[in-house]
Amino acid sequence: MSASLRGFLKPFTDRLQSRLSRRIVLWVFASIVTIEGIILIPSVKRREQELLAQLKELSSGKIAWILITYPQASGEELVTHLTQLQQRNPEILGGAVYEPDGQKVGTFGEPPELSLSEVNRPAQPHLPSRNGSRYDDLVWSGNQMQESYTIIIRHDASNVRAELIAYIGRIFSLVALISVFLTVTVWIALEPIVITPIFQLRRDLLMAGEAIYHDQEPPTFYSASIQRQDELGDVIAAFKQMFQQISEAISARKQAEAALKQSLETVEAYSQALDYELEKGHQMQKNFLPTQILQKPGWEIATFFKPARQVAGDFYDTFELPGGAVGLVIADTCDKGVGAALFMGLFRSLIRIFSGQTDLEGLTYLDNPATYSAENFSTSQLQDKQIIKALKAVRITNDYIAKNHGDVGMFATLFFGVLDPINGTLNYVNGGHEPLLLIDAQGGVRESLNPTGPAVGMLPDLDFNIQKTLIKPGDILLGYTDGVTEARAADGEFFKEKRLLSMLEGTFPSTTDLLNQIVASVLEHIGTAVQFDDITMLAVRRDEVLNKAV
């Protein structure tokens, strides 16, 4: 390739390398083609209607000649004449003739798909029928002249299609010529107006970046010589101002870096110390929970605990009471974090203490069973001192928290049950906690242990009723905190109690299997979302085989 030809083509190749130029030109070309296309579509439709109207007018005139020439012809004779007309005129492929009453006289040639009922349909205007290269239309009706026949003709519209294709080709060629001319014109005009100044500004930006990176003096920018009174000129002016501001800010940044580094070191040391203290709190809180779950012959007890943070407000507890009864506790302290964790330890300790004694810091409660509800109890059951003494620990704990720590507004929803492992009797107090579920050995929830009093620690001198139920052989008692039913997925949807209840319709060989299935479903629901609340569960199962043997 000669040097002169390369010189001639260089401006065009440079323009091709400009992505902005190509994009602008592409949009200009697409816009022109779109506009022309919008104009072309109705133009083609009109041309098609004109060609079809000409075809209909031609066949209508020939049929009119037959009707005028043979005014007395019968219907059969008319069909014969039309058959002869169809044989002499290739544009007529066939047709159908109808009497005034709508009765078909006969057809000739290729029958049309358009029927008289479609023509006379009152609900919508008559539209001719098109089927590929076939065109059906009404060319004669009883309302024309004094002939009472209605004639529908099937036309050969293949010539119309060819004419339309030729018409579209002519229009498309003209559109392409106009589009290419305007596109090239815009493309040539873009270089001095937009492309060259943008390239100069890009080089200046790279030079400015190098100067800032190496902390050098600002270079001479080529774009400084460009004086424009448009948006691109505003961009160039903004670049100059930006570089000046960056240069001024670099020195201030260097001065702040040393102080910031010192601050970061201080914050990092504080963060490490805080993490260390939280970890110690986490370990201490783990020590508040039972290291080993109490197990009784013929019974299986399992628990699950997963805090949302390093420390939590949920807790569970299992311990043995005087006389061999088993204390079962599951609770949820309001709020989260360190404060809730501290009160969690306090609630747990008070329940344990007061379930075996009734005096602390001047709060003394006599063994008076009459202060508790006698509903569902016999006289002999209310005289069971050990059960009454243990369960009224809930009320003593409530009064202690409300009177000594009421100013901080901490309370807990708490379930405390006393289980007789011999006969399966469970006496309990539910202080505003989620209902515990008694699952039948055959599957499904048999009973809900609903709240028998308010949340513990809200106000002093509140009443907490004692209720009783029976855990039959094979039954499972399930307790949980709201961290299970209110576990949230990434889209904010809750796990919900309905989903938990549906899982309990089946049977479970052990409490561990039950909790594992629930935990797997809850964690799958949470997915990648952050755990919002503590998840705590307690399950107690009465062994069916051993209890039957006993």
The proportion of residues forming helix, as a percent range, comes to: 40-55%
What is the general shape?
flat
Q: How many helices does DSSP assign?
A: 14
The named CATH superfamily of the domain at 292-549: PPM-type phosphatase domain
- Helix/strand-derived category reads alpha+beta
In which order are the strands of the major sheet placed? 2-1-5-4-3
Describe the model.
About 5% of the residues have low confidence. It is built from 14 helices and 17 strands. With 550 residues, the protein is an alpha+beta fold. Strands 2-1-5-4-3 form a 5-stranded antiparallel beta sheet. A 5-stranded antiparallel beta sheet has the order 6-17-16-13-14. It starts with a helix and ends with a helix. α5 packs across α6. It has a domain of 258 residues: PPM-type phosphatase domain (Phosphatase 2c, domain 1, 4-Layer Sandwich), CATH 3.60.40.10.
